[in-house]
Automatic annotation (TrEMBL):
<protein>
    <submittedName>
        <fullName>Phage holin family protein</fullName>
    </submittedName>
</protein>
<keyword id="KW-0472">Membrane</keyword>
<feature type="transmembrane region" description="Helical">
    <location>
        <begin position="79"/>
        <end position="100"/>
    </location>
</feature>
<dbReference type="InterPro" id="IPR009937">
    <property type="entry name" value="Phage_holin_3_6"/>
</dbReference>
<feature type="transmembrane region" description="Helical">
    <location>
        <begin position="48"/>
        <end position="73"/>
    </location>
</feature>
<dbReference type="InterPro" id="IPR036259">
    <property type="entry name" value="MFS_trans_sf"/>
</dbReference>
<dbReference type="Pfam" id="PF07332">
    <property type="entry name" value="Phage_holin_3_6"/>
</dbReference>
<keyword id="KW-1133">Transmembrane helix</keyword>
<keyword id="KW-0812">Transmembrane</keyword>
Amino acid sequence: MTVPRREDRSLGELVGELGGDLSKLFRQEVELAKTEIREEASKAGKAAGMFGGAGFAGWMTALFLSLALVWALDSVIDAGWAAFIVAVLWGVAAAAMFVVGRNKMREVNPVPEQTVQTLKEDARWARDLKN
């Protein structure tokens, strides 16, 4: 069977081919969007983990500060100040994890930029095809 030349094809065939091409293009765009969203969700998960670590470190800070206060008020001896130093170290750890988590969260972009760009290119392509 011979394939009709481009000039010999009917309007229906051309429209059908265009529909198939647009359908394929749409499926590819959806797949690209899914991939981009997965990547951004992974970044958000890592940032959430850092926030979780900061929360735990903050809880430890409260625990050790409480112990330090109890020991300091109870007998004003070295054990209380040692607990205070440990609590301060946990506070520093909490602050550091919070800053890292906040910075990672700022890197998260919920908009699938590449998909948006290619959709704009596709729209220009379709407009040019129409003209």
